[in-house]
Amino acid sequence: MGNKEAKRRIVLVPVPAQGHVTPMMQLGKALYSNGFSITVVEGHFNQASSSSQHFPGFQFVTIKESLPESEYEKLGPLEFGMKLNRTSEASFKDFIAQLLLQQGNDIACIIYDEFMYFSAAAAKEFNLPSVIFSTTSATNYASRRVLSELNADKFLVDMEDPEMQDQVVESLYPLRYKDLAISGMGPLEQVLEVCRKVANKRSASAVIINTVSCLESSSLSCLDTSVKIGIPMYSIGPLHMTPSPPSSLLEEDRSCIEWLNKQKPRSVIYISLGSIYEMVTKELLEMAWGLCDSNQPFLWVIRHGSESLPEEVSTMVSEREGYIVKWAPQIKVLGHPAVGGFWSHSGWNSILESIAEGVPMICRPFHGEQKLNAMYIESVWRIGFQVEGSKVDRGEVERAVKRLMVDEEGAGMQERALVLKEKLKASVKSGGTSYNAFDELVKYLKTK
Ligand code: UDX
């Protein structure tokens, strides 16, 4: 730790959203433990520095020209992301210039979330190495290459044909065109524009992916051979399995662990739809009825809290075997022996966390690459199934919960999830694929 090389600085640029901040902080912690100094550059909201007490030694810096939260609410994720990239470029360059002066040119690398592509301009200007960090799956990363080559008008017409929807995307078997991450984010042309920007490597010299080769070997080899990414790729996930402090942007309600302690082994279905999606009242009602009718105990994350629930739902939940929290310590919940299933929106972090604990899933994907993730759960790993359609009524909720928690079919899914759990454990242990890839990454960064 005492030599010059061991103290070189890495600048991290996360996207201001829970699902991106968490893996970036986990990566930062792992690199810090391997002798690098860490600077985290952030905007004005969803700041990683809200958990700075858990990351002593890290430097946190706010970009002045970054956009406020009100812009996110006004523009939505896609337009906000594009605007953020336009407005942050110049002030990020200024910040890097200052840091270089302070650090005596000792910046080893800028590691930026693939969606924070503005970072590449500063790296180029100051001739610094840059590395892209993809916080979602390798399949998603590879599929963006396909999307970035599509013509929006033609694709929309093609997709009116059900045969085309079910057609497998060449080199990404078994991914079908209908699984691609195009829905729920905005107009297709805009989605494709973002894909083109994100898929462009610019001057990056490597890519880090929060995945593990035993889950996505064919997509990883597609990136290597068909997409010909042409720069080193490091699959170092699941990052949450490496020792790291919490980086939750919301306060975790730990009372649910007490409640779980009173439940029977593998009896509880845990429901969480991540940090972005919120159910409307009608959906909440149908979900509550279905959960109660399933007769399984349930732990339900509702971010706006139980106080905003219709009275009918609150009464029903408190009379039945239900418990509601605003935000749960999710990794602890999934690792609790009482939890037997996870009703999820299929965000990538949630999936990795669930597999790492051998918990099978009911997938209710909403936007972005969640459909693609759900397809992998249902058809590739076979550790869960999708609940599809724009509306899900109480009967479907009840049937889905029973299918996973009670039926023999659910027992098979759980068995396979437990097998994958062991594979993930082996990957992050000394000699495992992710362990070795991280080792290689550290060596690589030390040469920069
Ligand atoms: C976003 C996108 O929606 C998703 O498609 C993409 O894969 C990642 O970025 P998000 O919706 O937040 O992510 O979902 P997810 O990736 O599952 O991340 C949520 C994180 O919040 C997880 O790490 C989970 O452990 C944590 N969480 C969630 C809690 O700590 N407590 C909760 O109550 C709920």
Structure, described:
Belongs to the UDP-glycosyltransferase family. Keywords: Glycosyltransferase, Transferase. InterPro entries: Glyco_transf_N, UDP_glucos_trans. It comes from Camelina sativa. The protein is of the alpha/beta class and 448 residues long. 46% of the residues lie in helices and 13% in strands. The chain has helices spanning 18-33, 69-103, 119-125, 138-148, 152-158, 162-166, 188-199, 213-225, 255-261, 281-294, 311-319, 330-334, 348-356, 370-380, 394-405, 408-428, 433-446, and strands at residues 9-13, 37-42, 59-62, 107-113, 130-134, 206-209, 233-235, 268-272, 298-301, 322-325, 339-344, 361-363, 384-386. Residues 1-6 have low confidence and may be disordered. The structure holds uridine-5'-diphosphate-xylopyranose. Uridine-5'-diphosphate-xylopyranose (UDX) binds next to helix 1, helix 12 and helix 13. Uridine-5'-diphosphate-xylopyranose binds next to helix 1, helix 12 and helix 13.
